[in-house]
Batch of 2 targets.
Target 1
Amino acid sequence: MRKQFRDTIMDLSAHDEKIVMILGDVSVYLFNEFKQKYPDRFYNMGICENTLISVAAGLSSHGFYPFVHTIAPFITERSYEQIKLDMCYNKFGGNIVSCGASFDYAWDGATHHCYTDLGILRMLPHIEVIQPGSRKEVDVLIRSQYNNGKTTYFRLSDHPHDIDIPVEFGKGVVLKNANANVTVMTAGPILGNVVEACRDLDVNLIYFHTIKPVDKATISMFKDTQILVIHDAFGLYEAVCEVPGLSVSYHGMPDEFCCWYGQLTEVREKIGLDVKSIRQAVHQKLQTPQRR
Amino acid sequence: MIPVLKEIRSDILRISKTSGHGHIPTCFSVVEILYAIYDTINHDPNNPIWEDRDIFILSKGHAALAHYCILAKFGYFDIKAVDSFGAFMSDFGCHADRLKIPGIEASTGALGHGIGIAVGMALALKIKKSHRRVFVLIGDGEANEGSVWEAIMVAVDLKLSNLTIVYDNNMSHLRGLQIHNSADRFRAFGCDVVVVDGHSVKEIKNEMNKTSDKVRLIVANTKKGYGCKTLIKNQYEWHRKSPDEKEFDLLMVELDEETV
């Protein structure tokens, strides 16, 4: 996804002189071509995430479209007040593009895990929260949102799914409507595991790349079913629950720090987000008493 | 004290008395600084978003009442409008909202934010090769925030010679984390540092007009409550206190007599 991010930026920058890259000492080599072509709009500003956001707000106030890019926990959790005040409250919009969220850096332990970003950012006014799951989603959603004057958070992953789906900002995608009693809702790269787990199960399957604004109309289509949100982060479940009158449960993050190191697949297996565990969770949901 | 500075201070006292809001001592410490800034920078009260204007940000947002009174004095709006200071549905909150008040470039209040935004604005103007300048006023208490020092490091690294930081050294820092030898610290960070009497409009203006190839940093030595000896002597008590009628009368007499 990061390569797609780079490719999209390079393409947009050929026609837009207002794009400014602000890196927090991450992906510096990846953006070498941008640096060579547009040296006055490329800044590896260092490991100072609070200031990266404040500077982006200042750039935005003078008409630029900043892209702040660094590792997810540091640019969201550490810099939450800067995002809240300098960007959202001041309405100095800009783009925040993270990498390494959830357990992409599983081996680095709890300091580098980030699963609250979507949940905390979606609570702020004047922000869009996007979790692309594939390269195509990265490309389409950056192009459609980067210059709209709002603060937009893009959460990139090194482990995209490979499912080709239609992409339109703010629109949920009905991947399967079997008129079933159970509806699985998910977002981002974990879709790959969810699709495989549910392949032959009698469930509806809905996918979101946009966490805020969440597509309430699509959610409401399944209001009479038992909804199971499967997500390797917080944020989607809370967004779905904003639709009144639903019966929703959540399968995802445990209430503990995931200090087991290893690989993404190993952490996902440990917390029940591998294909087998997801399938068990859906099976269990299918066996609970139905609403209709 | 030149008459206009007394008038501004009396506006602050009067509005604080009637509204029950305001940080008077910190407002009084920056009156000369704010007056010098608006008397120096390129700006147009009749067109607050004039595209050739210089930028000023009050990073120490607690002094918003002083900022309002200065803006009114320079013609951005009538001082009577500020009478609603802090009231429900007023445009004039105890911390300024840039979307409501003409002349406010950034909404501040949480300390250590305005300076970072100012760095971004200065960078934007540098990219545009603009001659416009950016001025930001920070407090010594505010400089307890790590984000202040982050922002200064970035500004120095980016060689933002169009940025001038004014440091209100009103000794608020003595209450908690103390920052002694502040000029030496800023110099060590790579700024072009000067120290002035923060209650001398002439000295401040003289330094504001100078340019440098570095980030400029003006350490303005001030007193909290400057103008009224009661405020200076009892600054902890008066940190966020509004005067009643009797106290107001006393402070006005002290102000008139310049009991600094």
Note: The domain at 2-155 of chain A is CATH 3.40.50.970 (Rossmann fold).
Target 2
Amino acid sequence: MDTTVKKEAAPGSAQPLLMVKHLIKHFALKKDVFGRGGGVVRAVDDIDFLVRQGETLGVVGESGCGKSTTARLLMNLTPPDNGDIIFDGRSVGSRDLSLKEFRRQAQMVFQDSYASLNPRLTIEDSVAFAPQVHGVSKEDAVERARDLLRRVGLDPNRFAERYPHELSGGQRQRVNIARALALQPRLIILDEAVSALDKSVEAQVLNLLLDLKEDFGLTYVFISHDLNVVRYISDRVMVMYLGQVVEIGDCETLFEQPKHPYTRALLSSVPSMDPDNRTEEPPLSGDPPNPINPPSGCRFHTRCVHAQAICSQTMPALVSDQAGHGVACLMHIAGSGHTDAPSAQQEVA
Amino acid sequence: MLNITVDPSKVPAVVTEKSTGYWRNVGQRFMRDKLAMFAGFVILLLLIMAIFGPWLAPHDPFASSIMKRLKPIGFPGHLLGTDELGRDMLTRLIVGTKLSLFMGITPVILAFCIGSVIGLIAGYAGGTVNTVIMRTIDVFYAFPSVLLAIALSGVLGAGITNSLISLTIVFIPPIARVAESVTTQIRSRDFVDAARASGANAFTIVRVHVLGNVLGPIFVYATSLIAVSMILASGLSFLGLGVKPPEPEWGLMLNTLRTAIYVQPWIAALPGVMIFITSIAFNLLSDGLRTAMEIKN
């Protein structure tokens, strides 16, 4: 296989690789025989974001905030209710870019390394499956699979004909990465891809991901609940809360100067190594509210220390500054009615 | 300073022995199961009897004798005695193996093929397709299998072909149900999602990723149905809906010998013993297969 895929454009080039507009997925709950229940889970509720060519976008949030649903919606494993996914300037599912062609260019790595490999296939056959779907001959696909196994650090002579149950978790996740690479994609969605691994193995796999990104000119969407890992690997970070994006921006800026109260609370949950650098933000308490009936207005107002009456009435839009740092909080919207918001005058000046 | 770089390919593999395929692994585990191996041996004997019956049997299965009716077990020249028409019991039991096994196994094989396809379609398609198929199946499932077999045979008329058809119809719903539930389970696994994400169509995914994972469990279940099928087929013959006399078949023999139960109870019980042994053997075999296939990570 030609492993020297041409380098894609540098991060931050004009055309975003992936643009997501108004992505919505509501899951209807079944009514019981008496017609009760039947609510709607607003798993992903109108989110917009873009992923630039060659960058790693980290996606963080608590359990149930819609991170994984977003990943599945991007790959159309779950059909979205609404929303456009524009890949490299072409709308997915349109005449310009069929779903099958999009799936050749975008691939996904799942959290459970064992469940994501067919237990009846050798790892070589698992990796070689996708290219054969796209018309590569069996011999060439196997050849490509062995090359990729070597590339992810598994000696094909020793591992190619093994079955998934004979491998360790880290080795299996390497196989899954090789499988995702087999179609020579440009975008890889990593859904908690390292979360189930031991810390030492996790570090090895993260470094492998960074190497592969460099070598193949890849773009990552990296979903994780582990803030340290996200900070390590991401160029930009998107914070989700109850199916919405509350803050998105450059990784270092977001970690150093988080704007949204939720982001601040989330970051303060990571213990600081420096006693002088303690956060004064009170930690988040309790579970996120039920996404079946999310709170009105700003969804975070039930747990927010800065919440005011206006917060339960007005839903803040995601507003970006010149640097592209977006935040959805009334405290950052001029003239929103929140007492901490900048006045409309100040904003103009 | 010591610079340690870990090259993962140089790290010794956890497993050093030669890789073993799944089925070879199952085979090895099955071989270690003494009871299952014994059941397999019994079934092998039965198959040999079925194939070579006419050559193994000491007498002509149809040769009757008024003089030697209902002779006891151990009667000179007739090791297992004679039936109500003076025919050699041992001969008829051996020759009857073929028809009895045929009547037991064929409906299960047919139902395995048809039921698996139905269950796979329902399980993989999901949604409305699943609901329509499975509710239809449930209608058949609602009848007790014995009653359904008798009713269908009664409607279709007596005869081997018709009882095979009715038994096949009886076994399709349970097999389809198992196939559907296993398929639904496999379908939700990440490797099926990964295959979908690689752009494969439903047919390819089912062929490469689903089939290999569902056929095993369905097969094990079908094996356990052979015992039931043998008993039902015997029952149909007993009721005069299956095999016709004077053809030797265990269920039919049980029927014709029931009049002799007070005269020669042991003779009358012999065909039942054969049915019992065969169904137990198939049950133990399927148990052994299931245990051998339960390889956990």
Note: Chain B touches chain A at residues 6-9, 13-15, 19-22, 189-191, 193-200, 204, 208-209, 212-213, 295, 297 (CB under 8 Å).
